[in-house]
């Protein structure tokens, strides 16, 4: 860990990226292997932030209906807001936080995420969820570029292939984020 970057309870928020049934339900065609078990692990983080009265933001990816939507053209399967599979998995108790709907990989792009964080005095974000190499990584880079200190939970994110997960961790740790673990985040919140 970079010595000059430490999680400070009074400055941190938890960003739970796209832990939706679309990705976490084994019956879904876009199920991310292990994401159902990941949800149970992330509940530890959600509960810890909640106990400390710290901000928790859940992102929910919803595809735009626009015909020129590049995401839709790329993936050809649409996540619709009214589809129950688009809901954040109940295991994480999304009522404990604020939900931000996004339409791209980046949780900040064309959303009110930055405003929500600034209003709450947040200077650090702890990022977890799915997919490591798409929405989590893109949101982490975007957070850094917006002046937030980024802590990326390496055992709190998942994607389809381990090689993609590891490549994202390597890239992020080089110039955008401090890699951390669920256990280390919980310890940091209880340290102060």
Keywords:
192 residues; alpha/beta; Rossmann fold; six-stranded parallel β-sheet; 7 helices; 19% strand
Residue-averaged pLDDT: 95
Q: Span from first to last CA?
A: 18 Å
Using DSSP, what is the number of strands? 6
Broad shape = globular
- The CATH class is Alpha Beta
**What count of domains describes the coordinates?**
1
Q: How many helices in DSSP terms?
A: 7
Radius of gyration: 15 Å
Class inferred from helices and paired strands: alpha/beta
> In CATH, what is the homologous superfamily?
Isochorismatase-like
Briefly characterize the structure.
It contains seven helices and six strands, in the order βααβαβαβαβαβα. The protein is α/β, with parallel strands linked by helices. The protein has a six-stranded parallel sheet with strand order 3-2-1-4-5-6, with helices on both faces.
General description of the model:
By secondary structure, the chain is of the alpha/beta class. It has one domain (9-191): Isochorismatase-like (Rossmann fold, 3-Layer(aba) Sandwich). The chain is 38% helix and 19% strand. The chain has helices at residues 21-24, 35-51, 70-75, 113-119, 132-145, 162-175, 182-191; strands spanning 12-17, 56-61, 98-102, 124-130, 149-158, 178-180.
């Amino acid at each position: 860990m970079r010595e000059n970057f430490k999680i400070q309870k009074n400055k941190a928020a938890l960003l739970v990226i796209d832990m939706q049934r679309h990705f976490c339900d084994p019956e879904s065609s876009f199920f991310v292997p292990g994401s159902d078990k990941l949800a149970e692990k992330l509940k530890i983080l959600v509960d810890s932030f909640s106990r400390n009265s710290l901000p928790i933001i859940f992102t929910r990816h919803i595809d735009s209906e626009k015909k020129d939507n590049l995401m839709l053209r790329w993936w050809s399967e649409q996540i619709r807001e009214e589809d129950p599979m688009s809901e954040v998995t109940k295991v994480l108790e999304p009522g404990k936080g604020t939900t931000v709907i996004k339409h791209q990989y980046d949780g900040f792009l064309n959303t009110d995420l930055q405003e929500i964080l600034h209003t709450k005095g947040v200077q650090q974000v702890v990022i977890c969820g799915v997919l490591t190499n798409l929405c989590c990584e893109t949101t982490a880079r975007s957070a850094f570029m917006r002046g937030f200190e980024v802590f990326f939970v390496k055992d709190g994110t998942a994607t389809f292939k381990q090689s993609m997960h590891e490549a994202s961790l390597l890239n992020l740790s080089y110039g955008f984020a401090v890699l951390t673990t669920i256990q280390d985040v919980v310890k940091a919140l209880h340290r102060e």
